[in-house]
Amino acid sequence: MNTETLDIKITKAAQSRLAQTDFSQLVFGHTFTDHMLIADYADGEWKNFEIVPYGEIGLSPAISSLHYGQAFFEGLKAYKHEDGQVSVFRPDKNAARFNKSAQRLCMPELPEDLFIQSVAALVDVERDWIPTAENHALYIRPFMFATDPFLGVVPSKTYKFMILTCPVGPYFTKPLRVKFETKFTRAAEGGFGYAKAAGNYAGAMLPTRRAVEEGFDQMIWTDAKEHLYAEEMGAANVMFFLDGVLVTPSTRDTILDGVTRDTVIAMAKDWGIPVEERRVSIAEIVEGAKNGKLTDAFGAGTAATIAPVGSLNYEGEEYPLSDPATREFSNRVFNTLNDIRYGRAEDTHGWNYIV
Ligand SMILES: *Cc1c(COP(=O)(O)O)cnc(C)c1O
Fold first, then answer.
1. Distance between CA atoms of residues 76 and 122, nearest Å
2. In terms of C-beta density within 10 A (0-12 exposed, 13-18 middle, 19 or more buried), how is residue 56 classed?
3. Whole-model pTM?
4. Are 183 and 59 in the same domain?
5. What residues does ligand 1 touch, defined as CB less than 6 Å away?
């Protein structure tokens, strides 16, 4: 791993927008902090790392990311502890996944320590923007896109790496009504569902709109081949508690290897709870909903955190689940995660990266 220390040029905004920002009215992803980070890739190397005032950037309309989709992102969060200390949750995992996405899209990797230093430098500049209220955090959005200014379906030779930061509150505020999606497909074997590629989210928009029109909050994607196995829930991983076992789809080409998913699995193991990472059939979930052995179901993701499923729908049949407030596992996970992230519980795994 590269261990050079980044020389990041910092240009401060003339005036902060912090005083005019109402932290009680945050809409996810709508409020940006005063600064952003930007770096260039050209001639085979990363350079010009800069923190500058948040704002528009000029680009050619021919850049290849706009036409051929060489673009991907990451998502992680920074938290403020009661003593004022600031931590970023498991940025090493995001740095590694950033490069998995880059490889799959024929884009240059960014050495993991440069990713982490970039995140830490921007968070450090924006520490006053990190909300302190429960379930609030600073959402960090690193991304990379191709900037070669000509048309041609070949990998670009130039790229930009950028990071934006947004103070955020909860993403979902109520239990979700979810359907198993059996027509549309998010990802197929051999594809790039495991990458946080921009195109994956464009392809999900029409199916999501249809689901919302039908009265659902989210869908559970199923396998492309047979539509018989659960894969992910919207842009979060999906986890079930079935007959005393934490069951979740095993990672594969079609599934994003979530940091939250990995964290929940590690916590379950710490607590002596059996965990199964395997193919999860819709049939067994529906059966569990009918006979009461499905005692928990939730989405797990950085933005979504732990998002309880209130009701499941399969081929028009509705299966209401138990009251989320009474669910032992997901509530324990949710509370323990918060305690670790806000520095109230011992961080035994070293998940908090202190800035
Ligand atoms: C980002 C994302 C997740 C969750 O990953 P985290 O690392 O936990 O945030 C799950 N599925 C998809 C499709 C995603 O884009």
1. 13
2. exposed
3. 0.96
4. no
5. 75, 196, 232, 235-237, 256, 258-261, 301-302
Strand-pair category, 137-146 with 76-80? antiparallel
Q: Are residues 106 and 247 in the same domain?
A: no
- CA angle, 78 as apex, 38 and 42 as ends, to 5°? 20
Task: Provide mean pLDDT across the span 59-71.
Answer: 97
- The full length of the chain comes to 355
In terms of phi and psi (left: phi > 0; alpha: psi -120 to 50; beta: otherwise), the region of 69 is left
pLDDT in tens, 191-244: 999 999 999 999 999 999 999 999 999 999 999 999 999 999 999 999 999 999
Q: Are residues 226 and 146 in the same domain?
A: no
Measured in degrees and rounded to the nearest 5, phi and psi for residue 211 equal -65, -40
The pLDDT of residue 172 is above 90: no
Which of 100, 256, 261 has most ligand 1 atoms within 8 Å of its beta carbon, as the pocket-test mutant?
256
Domain boundary among 169, 187, 215: 169
What average pLDDT does this structure show over 82-101? 97
Going by their DSSP bridges, the two strands 294-301 and 352-354 should be labelled as unpaired
Q: Which of 92, 168, 237 to mutate to test the pocket of ligand 1 (most atoms within 8 A of CB)?
A: 237
DSSP summary character for residue 345? S
pLDDT tens figures, 100-137: 999 999 999 999 999 999 999 999 999 999 999 999 99
Please give the pLDDT value at position 5. Answer: 83
